[in-house]
Automatic annotation (TrEMBL):
CDD domains: RING-HC_TRIM32_C-VII (cd16587)
Organism classification: Eukaryota, Viridiplantae, Streptophyta, Embryophyta, Tracheophyta
Protein name, per record: Protein translocase subunit SECA2, chloroplastic isoform X2
Gene3D superfamilies: Transferase(Phosphotransferase) domain 1, YVTN repeat-like/Quinoprotein amine dehydrogenase, Zinc/RING finger domain, C3HC4 (zinc finger)
PROSITE patterns in the cross-refs: PROTEIN_KINASE_DOM, WD_REPEATS_2, WD_REPEATS_REGION, ZF_RING_1, ZF_RING_2
Amino acid sequence: MELPECPVCLQTYNEKDTIPRVLACGHSVCEACLVELPQRYPDTIRCPACTQLVKYPTQHGPSALPKNIDLLRLCLEHPSSSSSDDSQKSKQHSVNKGDDHSQFLCTRFWSDELYSTWRDWILPHDVISIESEFAGREGPGLGFVLRGRFGSTFPLKGQVCIQENQCLSLAPIVSLPPVNHSKFNFSYVARIMMCLEGMKEAQREELALILKASMKQNRICKVYGLWSDLVGGLLYLVCERHRGSFLEKFSELRNGFVGLAGDGLNRDGFVSFSMIGMSICEALIELHTEGLVAGYFGRSCFCSDELGGIYFDLNEALASGRKICRTLMDAISIGTSNTVKQEAICEYFLQNECLVSPELLFELLPKDTITPESGFTRYPIGYGSDVWSLACVLLQLLFGNALPRCTLEKNEEKKSFDISGSYICWVERVSSILEDKLGPEYLLLRQTLCKCLEINPGSRPDAVDVRKCIWEMLVKPQFDVLGTLDVALNRNSVYCCLILGELCQLSQECSKSQRECEFQDKDNGGWPDFVQDGEENSDEGLSKGMTELKDLRGHLDCITGLAVGGGYLFSSSFDKTVRVWSLQDFSHLHTFRGHENKVMALVYVDEEEPLCISGDSGAAIFMWGLTSPLGQDPLRKWYEQKDWRFSGIHAMIVSRNRCLYTGSGDRSIKAWSLKDGNLICTMDGHRAAVSTLAICDEVLYSGSWDGTIRLWSLIDHSLLTVLGEDVPGEIKSVLSITADRHLLVVAHENGRIKVWRNDVFMKSQTLHSGAIFAICIQGKCLYTGGWDKKVNIQELSGDDFQLVVNSIGDIPCSSVVTAILCWQEKLFVGFADKSIKVYHGNLKSFSWYASILAQVSEKCQ
């Protein structure tokens, strides 16, 4: 025989340690556990057996509750169960409790892990303002110069702060899916999360690697996160931009070198070259340390701060890579035969300053353009490819325009271009010029630079070796008291190549029509519109997911309430009628007439004989039968006791025990029997009209114009607790309430909502610029509407310690929103202009659009 036990500690009751005390709901809990149970609301406690909120004597404690004598007698007459059984039951109880909670989670299109990963990287929309277009800049260009609008510290991984008027740069990552034909305006964070969710996993991983690398290294420009202006329709990577120009510094240093015309490089010139050369090497080393390989970079990929420090600009590296990809595509489209294509491509890459390593050129060339006669050999892309570009930057620093350009050598016998031979000739000319310019004093530097240009990347030195060479020539080993940079790179380690990575490849996946955006200029290096395959189709589903199905008209005044049941949609109005609409085709079926005053509220009752009950401002309650055919006369009607000062019904709701509750202008809540319409009891306490009612877990929630929410027990109709009295002097009328098992959301006339989760106050947040008249919750999605003529859709997420209200978007409306109802992927909205609009969509899945990730919810408050 199993003896009765406490539902919390699962211990058998006794008269010493586990004395059973009886709660108002009839369940018993041991005295020790009652002391430990959290009291979320004043003078109340949730029964751990039925989760019902019941009265609790806080001042006197559990000893003031009656003992369960019958349970004590039964336990004393039989021996207690073993502790092992208790342990097993406790474990099973925990499992069941977790399973019970999981069924209330809302299905999402993205995981909590994805959202939590990206939410901190989404910059608020108003933190950045586009100040001016940055034109005429050497290199690929970043398109715009941006400045931080205000200084705020964001919860990024590195706690980076964007200061006021800080100069920033941006690089486009991907297009935001278009939503031009949707009735629904997606929020800023929702559109970015939609973009991130639509990206491939490899693209997100590469993006995350770039973000994290910039936070850990000092010589890499900090990447603050993701941002979009929404107007251009692009998602950008926002990076710091140093005010010092490396290109100007580059030119000044070259002009300061003496003897470049033929006298050789003097000592002062070499010192200047060495300092900037080592800084470039250090920036490249930090990049490689984080597992990133640029693949190609030029002088424009480096920038300088006010103190002369050199930094590697990840945004510019992406820009340079994309420019090469676009140029390659244009060159391929010019030629008709393989030979012509090969010539066009190589003429560009080998005869201008956009020098690309041989192995990268081979990788970028279409395989059908590579012929055996070209002399190409396939080598892997890796750290050696960046060392090749490093050598080119250092050579440009030394020689500038004097750096020789490669010319293609044509093999007359085979009528083809010997690319490999042309490259070898070019390296020999570079070596010859180096010997003339540097002289025997800098033999080690000349040998190192030439070795960096080896056709086999495996034979090239590391960036660490190049820096060591420059350092040892600048500081003689016998005077080196600080030592050299001790960094070892594993050539076999896994790395990500930016130019061959997913982010650069996005531009190649676009058609020419997709690459034309509003600020594109082909002659000035305009940016393409990076739209992925399948994004347009995905958004087509999204725009169709919130479409206006029907505009229901017929009422002659403002809509006051909506209800669904029995295959009907019911609507009440100030025009003193209740209209019945078909849920099949939304046609008007019937109108209930009889009220002499404005109909303020209505409810549907699902009984053996379904009912529609309506209440008006004259305190009349009408009960309408729904058997076919629908009749004109009510089945029953009765009136509240009228008060000449406060009268009328403002809210109605029905409990499972067949009780009708009405909130009245006389500041009371009344309970009525549906069987005969008799008044059961009156609940007083509010100091103003009761405007809204909700029922959840055998608790009646009432909101009032006095700014408070009162909780009533449905068992004995006693007052459990009062919320909102702890903020004196800030009375804001409560206009609407919605509740489910875990959440209580209260809407106020000042446009703010207050949210309680598991009886704990979590958040107060402004959602509208005016009063919120209607509120509805489904799953994790909250729908609100009011004076500002729009329906806002939010996602409520987080955990027991933090509630996050993420704006998914809004539906712009032409009139004040007065009623909202969710039912089977349809959203019904009533307006002050006498209309009812029906929107169709997968309402349960709107949480897909919440993320950041990410995110505005905390950053923009």
